[in-house]
Automatic annotation (TrEMBL):
Electron transport system for the ribonucleotide reductase system NrdEF. InterPro entries: GlrX_NrdH, Glutaredoxin, Grx-like_ET, Thioredoxin-like_sf. PROSITE patterns: GLUTAREDOXIN_2. Belongs to the glutaredoxin family. It comes from Pseudovibrio exalbescens. Residues 3-61 form the Glutaredoxin domain. This is Glutaredoxin-like protein NrdH. GO terms for molecular function: electron transfer activity. One of its GO terms (biological process) is cell redox homeostasis. Keywords: Disulfide bond, Electron transport, Redox-active center, Transport.
Amino acid sequence: MSITVYSKPACVQCTATTRALDSAGLSYDVIDLTQNEDALATVEELGYRQVPVVVAGDQHWAGFRPDKIGGLA
């Protein structure tokens, strides 16, 4: 399953999310929304207006969600 974390610089919840993914031994890609307008449009199409947004397979969520990350491990 591919995991993508849509993030922005200096985002505390984004850092917490990537650390939790690292701790769970999960690989992921990080996309900086301040550098990628297409990715920003994708996140907005999903209905989100905050970061991080995590897309893992067919599920997605916003914010730091250790419960969701634990479910991926």
